Amino acid sequence: MHLKSTRCFAGPFRNASRRRRYIALMTQVIITTKANGPLIVEGPVRIVTPDGRELTPPARKDGKPAEVVVLCRCGGSQTKPFCDGTHKRNGFQDGQVTPG
Ligand code: FES
Predict the structure, then answer these.
(1) pLDDT (tens digit, 9 = 90+) per residue, 22-81?
(2) What domain range includes position 34?
């Protein structure tokens, strides 16, 4: 039995072509944990709020559009979900990485 809901996660991926395109896009995304700092997200991603608004990552210091998305991992940023550098001042320590 399949639930007829537009919110069903599997819905968009039942189509084999769409599933292949999604997987191809996901293999282009790299997420790197920076030691005692943020998550660096490289690749074609969109950051969307719970109510569906798309957020634009902050521009680089030189004013050019960001080429990567830098996400806060310490919880201290004033611009969540983006990192604002607070992790350098609040003593954030990420501990040991657990192997998968
Ligand atoms: S990780 Fe940079 S402000 Fe939280």
Answers:
(1) 777 778 899 999 999 999 999 888 899 999 999 998 888 888 777 899 999 999 999 999
(2) 30-100
Domain holding 68: CATH number?
3.40.5.90
**How far is ligand 1, taken at its centre, from the CA of residue 22, in Å?**
29
Question: What total of structural domains would you count in the chain?
Answer: 1
Tokens of 95: 């501990």
Q: How far is CA 72 from CA 18, 75, 83, 94, in A?
A: 31, 6, 4, 12
What pLDDT, on a 0 to 100 scale, did the predictor assign at position 98?
Answer: 73
- 73 CA distance to ligand 1 middle (Å): 5
Q: Is the CB of 77 under 6 A from ligand 1?
A: yes
Q: Give me the pLDDT at residue 41, please.
A: 94
